[in-house]
Amino acid sequence: MELKSLTRLNASSLLLIAIAFIAAVVVSNKLFQGWRLDLTDNNLYTLSDGTKRIVENIEEPINLYFYFSDKASEDIPSLRDYANRIQELLQEITNSAGGSINLSIIDPLPFSEEEDRAAQFGLQGVAIPGGADTVYMGLAGTDSVDNVEVITFFQPDKEEFLEYDIAKLISTLAQPDRTVIGLVSAVQMTGSFDPQTQQMRQPWMVYQQAGQLFEIRDLGTSFESIEEDVNLLWIVQPRGLSIAAQYAIDQFIMRGRNALIFVDPLAESDPAPPMQGMPQGMPPMGQSSNLATLFGAWGIDFSADQVVADAQLALQISGGSGQRPVRHFGYLGMPSSQINSQDIVTTDLSSINVGTAGYFALSEGSESDFEPLLTSSASAQTIESSRFTFLPDPSALQDGFSPTGENYVIAARVSGIFKSAFPNGAPDLSVDSSIGEPSSSEEKIEIDSAHIGEAAQPVNLIIVADVDMLGDLMWVQVQNFFGQSIANAFASNGAFVANSLESLAGSSDLIGVRSRASYTRPFTKVEELRVAAESEFRQTEQRLQSELADTETRLGELQSSREDTGALMLTPEQQSEIDRFVDRRATIRKELRAVQRNLDRDIEKLGTTLKAINIGIVPLLITLATLFAVWRRNRSRAR
C-alpha cells in the first residue's frame, strides 16, 4: 500500500514538475521577450547607436523585402550562412523600429510571381556554377509613397559594411527629399565660355555625375550666408574667399553640418591670368588655395606651397614633341595599397590619380579624429611648388630627390566637436582679411547674437589636398558617340567624390555606422597547419619537376650519343634511366600522399583535442567546481 502511494506521489510530482516547467517557459517568453545577450566578439549582433537612432526617427512605415533563394542555394552552405546573418540583422533592426518597419522574407522560386517582383525591383540574380537556377540575395525597400531603394545583391566580400548598407537604405527611405549640396568653387566646374575656341566648355564630368545624385546649388565665392536647406558644402579651390564667406562656412559647420573640401598647393586646372612678359607658348601657372583660418581652428595643418613627390607612385606622362615618356614625380597613381579599405568612402576603390598634391597633418594639441584615406608611399618627399612651374623636363625632379620615409596624407576624414574660427563673434569687415582678393571696404557683417562658438554635435569633414584630381584628364576619357558624351573612367576619382558626397550628405547617425568586424571566425590554427602542409607539398612537387627535367635531359643526352640513331629500340642505358625515374616518381608520389595524410592527421588531432576539452575537460571542471561548492557548504553547516 505504501509502495502504491509512493508511486502515485512520484507520478504526481513529475506531472507537477512538467506543468511548472511549461508554465515557466511560457512566462519567461512573455516576460523576457526581446531580451538578448550578445556574447560574440566585437558585438556583431548588437546594433550601433547610429542605426538605432535612424530607426527610432522613422515617421512613416517602411516595408523591407529580403529576397533569398533558399531552395536554390541548398548546396551552398557559405552563402546560406551569410543569408542567415543578413536575416538576423534585419530582424534585429525590425525589432528596434517599434513597428515602423515591416519585414518580409521571400524565396523567389523560378518562374514565380515572387521572382517577377524581384526583377521589377531591380534585384540581381546570380548564376551559381553547377546550379540550374539563379540565386537572389538582395533587399528592396518601399515607403508610404512608393519610393523604392534596393540593394541588388549582398556581396559577401562587403560584409564589414552590411549594417551601413542596410541603415543607408532605411535612412534614404525615411528622408526621401533630394539632398541639396552647396558648391563653393573658384574654378569653372559647371562649364564656361572658352575664348580660344569661341565655344562653351562642357561641365566637368565629376560635376555632371554629382548632379545626377544631388541638387547642386552654386553659391559662388562672395556669399555672406548659406540657406538652411543646404545639407552639405562642396568646397573646391577656395581661392579669394572673402571673410564674409569664411564666416558663413564657419557657422555652417558650427551648426553640425558637414563639408567636402578640396585645396591645392598648385592647381593646374585653375590657371592664373597670363603675366606680362611671359614667353609665347608657355603654359599658364596654376594657383594655390587654402582655408588657413578655418583649418587652424579645426586643428588641421596644410602647407599651401609644398607638393608631395613620390618616386614609387609616379605616373608616366608623354614627353611631347616625339620625346620618350617620362615619369613625373608630382603626378601620382595611387593603387589600392595606398587607399584606406576600412572606410566606406574608399573601400571599393582600386586606383586614384592626383596631380601636384599637397598633404595634411593634425595640429599639435588637436583633439580631432584624423583618419587617412589616401596616403603616399614611403618613397616620397615634399618639394616647393615653385619647382613645378615652367618645368619643361619632369625628369629634373629626380635630381637631388631624397625620400623621407614618411607616408604623407593626401586625403583624410576629420571629425570632432569643432570650435569656431571666430571666437569673438561675427567679424567687422571695415578691413577685410580675405584670401587672395581684398573685398570692398563697405562690406559689413552685423554682430549676431545667434553666433555659434562651438559645434553642438560631432562634425565630419573629408579634406583632399588636390583639386586637379577632379579634372577629366586625371580620371576619365569622354568621347562623343552620335551626339552623346560617353565617359570611360580609367581611375576611381569620380567614385571617390560620389562616395564622399553620399557619405557626408547622410545624417550624422548614418556616418556613425562604420564598418563592423566580420562574423566569419576562421579556424586560424587549422589554416596555419594547412599553409605549412601546402608549403611542404609545393617543395616536394618542385623537386619532382626538377628530377623530371633532369631525367628528360639525361634521356636526350643518351639519345644523341647513340650511333644507331634510326633504331626505335631503347638502349640499356636509356631503359635503366627510365626505370630509375619510374621508381623515384612512385617514391615521390608516396611522399606527396604522406604530406596530405600528415595534414589530415594534424587537423584531426587538433579536432580531437578540442572535442576532449569541450566534451570532457570543461564538464569535469564544472563538476569539480560544483562538488567543491557542495563540500564547502556542507562543511559550513557542520560547523
Q: What is this structure's SSE topology?
A:
Blueprint: H1 2-31, H2 49-56, E1 62-68, H3 77-96, E2 101-106, H4 113-121, E3 125-127, E4 134-142, E5 148-151, H5 162-174, E6 180-185, E7 193-194, E8 199-200, H6 205-213, E9 215-218, E10 232-236, H7 243-254, E11 258-262, E12 267-271, E13 286-287, H8 292-298, E14 300-302, E15 306-310, E16 314-317, E17 326-335, E18 351-355, E19 360-362, E20 369-375, E21 380-384, E22 409-416, E23 459-464, E24 476-481, E25 484-489, H9 493-505, H10 508-512, H11 524-560, H12 572-638
Parallel strand pairs: 1-2, 6-9, 6-10, 10-11, 11-23
Antiparallel strand pairs: 1-4, 3-4, 4-5, 7-8, 12-13, 14-19, 15-21, 16-17, 17-18, 20-22, 22-23, 24-25
Could you name the key traits of this structure?
single chain, 639 residues, 5-stranded mixed β-sheet, alpha+beta
Task: Please tell me about this protein's structure.
This protein has 639 residues and is of the alpha+beta class. The chain has four domains: 1-35; 43-173, Glutaredoxin; 180-271 and 285-439 and 451-505, Rossmann fold, CATH 3.40.50; 524-559 and 571-638. The chain is built from twelve helices and 25 strands. The chain has helices at residues 2-31, 49-56, 77-96, 113-121, 162-174, 205-213, 243-254, 292-298, 493-505, 508-512, 524-560, 572-638; strands spanning 62-68, 101-106, 125-127, 134-142, 148-151, 180-185, 193-194, 199-200, 215-218, 232-236, 258-262, 267-271, 286-287, 300-302, 306-310, 314-317, 326-335, 351-355, 360-362, 369-375, 380-384, 409-416, 459-464, 476-481, 484-489. A seven-stranded mixed beta sheet has the order 9-6-10-11-23-22-20, with helices on both faces. Strands 1, 2, 3, 4 and 5 form a five-stranded mixed beta sheet that branches. β3 (125-127) and β4 (134-142) form a beta hairpin. α6 packs parallel to α9 (493-505). It is globular.
